[in-house]
Amino acid sequence: MNPLEALNEIATLLERERSSRYKSKAFRAAADAITGLTDEQLRDAASLRRRKGIGDSTFAVIQQALAGEVPGYLTDLRAKAGGERRSALRAQLRGDLHSHSEWSDGLTSIDLMVDAARALGHEYLALTDHSPRLRVANGLSPERLRAQLEVVAGMSGDGFTLLSGIEVDILEDGGLDQEPDLLRELDIVVASAHSKLRMERRPMTRRLVAAVSSGRVDVLGHVTGRLVEGSRGTRPPSALDPEPVFAACAEHGVAVEINSRPERQDPPDELIAIALEAGCLFSIDSDAHAPGQLSLIDHGAERAERAGVPAERIVTTWPLERLREWTALRR
Fold first, then answer.
1. Closest of 224, 219, 231 to residue 176, by C-alpha
2. CATH T-level topology, domain 3-82
3. Are 300 and 125 contacting, i.e. CB atoms less than 8 angstroms apart?
4. Residue pair 162/124 in contact by the 8 Å Cβ criterion
5. Which overall architecture, per CATH, does domain 89-328 show?
6. d(CA 31, CA 231)
7. Alpha helices (H) in 163-200, listed in sequence order
């Protein structure tokens, strides 16, 4: 087996299972360390062990791959991933409108996110790094976002499109944490609340309604902000009245995100039912912070299928031309 491919696949699978970011980064660092080396150089064990980025686990993987074996580390991860069920709806998804790179709080470069999206068969991916107020996530100032737009512009081709975007923070008054004119330049605007999640019900409802009624939002991200599992612990959903929020989404053509991260499972099933009744559109998104997490849309597709969400009301099943027509209504 090719050692470089083994290291990258292990990193991808670790990212998918949301393992410690240090584990996946270690395997990606090892892959970078051996890129361009010949088999002869790889077989020089003493030299390889001294190379920066190579540790005990990654060295063992390289040696097993060179011996023609599938590394045991990779075998175990493949077995875990192979046991997950894939829904019929997943095959209809054409892209993903919520992802992050190392420009904010993602783990890798934009090009690695693009490579992973292409490998999954995506036709498009929106890069939606955070906005400036979210300092803990290294949110993008207007200047940094404009610089990122120049990078994004050169990342499409061969049947794949990288869409420019942002996950803009919804401020306490319902305003959006980025320059209005700059938001209009983007292909995709995902709006999410990240602070003051324990606001009282009425002001939280007004906050979300104001955001989706602004005429600049395409997707309402992880609407309740809840966490149900994972390394960050749990967090209850924000108190809000879903009926006026989803009515505003339906009125303004804003898609309700079905966030695919297992630790979020947001919106809860009962809110998906209310959004369906309100006539909302939906967007099944990975909220990926690393290449391997793009495949988490499997979970979102399974939830949407179980909830009875029709494929035609899921914007990420639409071809790019139709998606652009939809977002153009708010530009």
1. 219
2. DNA polymerase; domain 1 (1.10.150)
3. no
4. yes
5. Alpha-Beta Barrel (3.20)
6. 26
7. 180-185
